[in-house]
Structure formats: C-alpha cells, structure tokens
Amino acid sequence: MSKKTDGNVYTVLFAVGMVVVVGSLLAFFASSLKPNIDENKRIEKQQNILYAMGVNENTETTAEFVSTSIAEQEFTKYITKQLVIEGDNVSEDENAYLIDVKKEKDKAKKGGIRRLPLFVGEKDGKKFYVAPIRGKGLWDAIWGYVALDENMVIQGAYFDHKGETPGLGANIKQRYFMDDFIGEHLLTESGEFKGVRVAKGNNDPKNEDKTDYEVDAIAGATITGDGVSAMIKSDLQLYVPYFKSLKK
Question: How many independent structural domains does the chain possess?
Fold first, then answer.
C-alpha cells in the first residue's frame, strides 16, 4: 500500500509550498537589507569621487579608498560644490552624487535631457572637477570617475566593472592602469575634444607623452580597453561646454 506522500499531487504541492516559503523569505531579507545596501552604495560613490581627486589611502602599488568610517567626513571636507548640468542650465545640488548615470544615459537615448553631475573639489590649494562616466566592457557594465583641471587635463581616475575577466579586463581597477591617465590631455591646443584611447601597440609604453591622447592597453583585454576609451569620449565630451564657460 502506497503512502499519501508518494503521489504526484503531493510532490507538486510540496514544490509549490517551498517556492512560496523561499520566495517570501528572500523578499523579506531583500526588503530588510535594502537600507544597508543603499547606504553602502552611497558611501562607495563618495569614496570613488574622493579617490579620483587623490584623496585615498594608496600604498606604493595598490589602490585603496579612504575608510568607510571617515568617507562622509572627507567628502564634506574636500567636495566644495556638487553641480548638475542640464542642457544650458547649471545648478547646485548637495545630492548630485546620487544621480544614477545609467538611468540618465537611458533617458537621453529616448530623447530626454540628460543630467550631468559634476563635483568640484579642492585639495592642497588645487581645484578639481570630477565627472562620472559609464560604458560597456566585454561582459557587462564598466564605469568610473575622472578628475580634471579647468583645462580638461586628467588629474586622477578611478575605474570599476561588474563582470570583466579576472587578470585581464578586471585590471582596469588596478592602480598601474588608472595612474597612466594622470596628466593626459583631453583637448587639443585649438580646443577640440579628443579623449584618451586605450591603445594596443601604443608607441609610448612609458606614458611620457601626455598629449598623444593614448595610454597603453592591458594585455589580453582589448574589448574592455575599447570600452574605457568609448565611455571617456562619449561622456566627458558632454562637459566641454561647461569647461569652455569657465574661460569666459
């Protein structure tokens, strides 16, 4: 004589019950953890912006953020203005760093006006303008923050990724790669925007020429490097009118 639990109906009901229970638990945990996740993302953005303008705890070889315990304090100390550029309008917004760059890019693709965050910082008597950028790597999204001076010369950069290949494309967040961008010019002498290309076979492997609009590529990461080049060009050129207005 078979047990009641041997039937197909019992199996289906048990499976449905487990799905409902597990789904409910996951939804509960996701909801309860969301404030902590959002807070971590907020602090991480502050750390990224600070890193790009040289406020970090780097060692001789590794890239290190300021600690989470002091990130907000350092952000308030070094970031003097948060601007939002929207068409011809430039306004201040103390929460500009929370603007979702991905959503703004998607909005622009649909014909909307994209909001461009720009963070003005001061360190050791020098002014920095930090802009967020976002693009596509080999497997998924890549993004970064680039610090500029008033002439659109790069003063620092931070890059990150969602799923690039370890040891290859993932190395865009290694210090040796990010530091290569320091001093690179984005504009020609006549004011034309050129960007910076991550170049395979670059003729300046020691990165001594800062007006060639190139840095050396990461071996085995051509597509990720192309993505970095593309996001620098597509996103930073949008800030050219603002920087030209600084000269007026």
Answer: 1
The structure tokens listed for 146 are 């680039």
d(CA 70, CA 52) in angstroms, rounded, equals 16
149-172: pLDDT as tens digits: 999 999 999 999 999 999 999 999
Q: Establish if 159 belongs to a structural domain.
A: yes
- Whether 221 maps to a domain, the answer reads yes
56/42 Cα distance (integer angstroms): 17
* Alpha carbon of residue 196 to chain centroid: 16
H-assigned helices in the chain? 8-52, 68-78, 101-109, 175-179, 222-236, 240-245
**What's the residue count for the chain?**
248
Does some domain include residue 96? yes
Residue 30 lies in a domain: no
* pTM of this structure: 0.85
Domain that holds residue 54: 41-245
The Cα–Cα gap between 32 and 96 comes to 26
- How far is residue 17 from each of residues 23, 27, 151, measured CA to CA in Å? 10, 15, 63
Q: Measured between alpha carbons, how far is 69 from 77 in angstroms, rounded to an integer?
A: 14
Strands 154-161 and 141-148: antiparallel
